[in-house]
Amino acid sequence: MNASSTIRLVHYSNRYKKELNAFALPADQERFTALPGKTLEKSMRGVFPCVILESSRPVGFFLLNQTERVYEYTENPYALLLTAFSINHLDQGKGCAERAMGMLRNFVGKDFPFVNEIVLAVNHKNVPAQKLYSKCGFVDTGLRREGRIGEQIVMRLSW
Predict the structure, then answer these.
(1) Whole domain around residue 154: which residue ranges?
(2) 42: exposed, middle or buried (C-beta count within 10 Å: 0-12, 13-18, 19+)?
(3) 29-67 pLDDT tens trace
(4) Between vectors from CA 37 to CA 78 and to CA 99, what angle results, nearest 5°?
(5) How far apart are CA 136 and CA 75, in angstroms?
(6) Which one of 10, 96, 101, 115 has the fewest beta carbons within 10 angstroms of its own beta carbon?
(7) Which of 66, 96, 95 is nearest to 82 (CA)?
(8) Which CATH number does the domain housing residue 129 bear?
(9) Which of 121, 113, 127 is nearest to 69 (CA)?
(10) pLDDT above 80: residue 133
(11) Distance between CA atoms of residues 78 and 74, nearest Å
């Protein structure tokens, strides 16, 4: 990514489907998240797919959940749950994830003005993701959950 490229967060639309379906991750990363193509196959009420764009090209993806599932991670009725975060393998190491997470609070505030917290769960073995989230203002809540592949650390970003 060069200095003139811009990162933007947008809500998913079908125009990004082909590129998101082409996302790939190494096996050691794929075990921690769901690829966008698999996630988009399941449409759920209260779940909002979001795309991270570098200029106009999708480089990342995540879901914002406004469902009862949020209450597995927080008691805050004004929280959203962030899941399925990924950066396409070809675009990793360019700062896209950190820049996108830095924009998250403002992005959420535009469409969800009532929200004052975002929660997520990160596998205890996924140290790079833990460091990213911490660097972007997420804090460890002390809560632990058992995920499909082991213990998860619940983190939150509050404002």
Answers:
(1) 7-158
(2) exposed
(3) 988 998 898 888 877 899 999 999 999 999 999 999 999
(4) 55
(5) 22
(6) 10
(7) 66
(8) 3.40.630.30
(9) 121
(10) yes
(11) 10
